[in-house]
Amino acid sequence: MSIMMNTKPVTYVSLKKVLCHTEPNLRFQISTRMPSIRQTEKRVPLKIETLALQEFKTTVNGTSYELGVYRDFHPDAVVADQIKRENENGGVKHDLDEYGFKVNPFSTPIFPGDMDFRNGQSPSFGDDLPEDLYRHELKMAEEALKKLEELEAKGITVEEYLQTAQEEVEGDVRQYIADGKEYVQRTIEHARATLYPYDCRKNDERPPYTPYIQLTVSKNWKQEIQRTSYDRKLYEAAKQVNHWFFANRGIIRVNQLNVLSHGEVCRLPIGLQICASIVTGYEWNMLPISSVLTPYCQTVRIRSIASLNCDSPVVRNAKILEISTENLMWPTTNLHQLPNPQIELSYPYTDQITTANYFDRITEWLSIDRFIGSKLSIMLDTEDAGEKVLEMARSSSSERANCRSFKRCVRVRWQNGKDIRICYVKNKKRSQFEWILKTRIIKAEA
Questions:
Q1: Contact of 361 with 378, CB cutoff 8 Å
Q2: Hey, is 114 helix, strand or coil?
Q3: pTM, two decimal places
């Protein structure tokens, strides 16, 4: 007996509702495999929990899409371990020319939509040493390996040999012998792999491999690998992948956007707009990021190495600005330029911070008129540091009547009907910092 099933096609409205609640990576797959719904999928707002952007890697909700140039060597070719490792890691993250030389990524063009984090720099890129030095290194290492094999055959240890051999071998060879056989073999492999392109160019030959562009999709230690002909530049492939994800959409809503790029170019489609609740990046990332962000972000987390561009809209418009910096002097000159309602400072190397440093940060933050509710938080590693800052606040108050003390807290009369409350509290978040020093602008007592 056959059972007749009454199936109805999914309506446009129903499809949009389904797609709206579908995980982004699954949406990408559906759109790829079902071209008939691709336009509809693009029209449905895209919401992403975490998005990380790098030059050749895009990570969406823990699923990463990484590009590289994979070298498939001919069966009779000897492959250096270094190249094997690069292949195992998805291929090299730069283009290769016809002979196998690395192409300088800093020389690649910038297209509309791209985010450029190179800061105008174009450093040298490629082999660290000239060809003749690599050939010298290879020669010395091969001589050392020959000597080590002779010693093994005779049952003589390296230590015994070096104690008796004074002028028998050159200094470089002697050092390689001292480093041991395993290190010498790795050196030989590295030198030979580096010299591949030189030999190919000299003989006008192609390298003993077929290059492919590899896309590695990874999630939860599982990988899916796709390879295509190396018929375009790696940066062009990156542009194409991100175009596939993000082009022709409305504003993409992202809870946490991570852009920790240095000397890279993120290849993005024209017109991309992201509304992010939390943005994380280095100080030099902030200005380029602003080209794709809507004006307001709830929280901006910055890892500051040098100094912060306080004019960046991403920085100035953040409600909460979190700065982790190794530069002890940075906030002393910049805090007065930051109007953010909440600022949080942390120093990874707290052993270099003194009580006076902490108090200087508070003083600098208070050098401009801030509205009631503004807050400065500084991470502390000890309770004693917090108590010492409160003691400085008490002693710096011009009159005792202007300062009231409580347990772990000081309230100081300020200006324009405002008071300052400084206290230190336990840090409830998992962190290397056990305490937080909080300074807040509050309404003055009547």
A1: yes
A2: coil
A3: 0.84
